Please model this.
Amino acid sequence: MATKDELQAIANQEIEDAKPMYKQVNNVRSELSDDDYAQAKIDLGNSKWNDQQFGYIQARQEAYGSFGDQLDMQFKDLLDNTTTWKDHIAQVKADNPKPS
Model:
């Protein structure tokens, strides 16, 4: 896990590497100002931090599958005396760990 400062340093470098960057306001294209670049660095750093800290939530939600599919797994597990659902949930959690 990267620290917030480490992620901010990566974001800063990515913005520096992407220069020049432009914006368009009222059909006028111009390079970002120093303040715009500073804000872009802050925004990208915050985005990287949020992805690291909370990205696992969306990844897990997508990997779990629908409630209907999960209920179907549970029902089949009861009928067949298997652990398909429990194994599936454990694998999703292992593949998408919660940051410590």
User: Anything to note?
Assistant: Helices lie at 4-18, 34-64, 67-80, 84-95. The first strand starts at residue 22 and ends at 25.
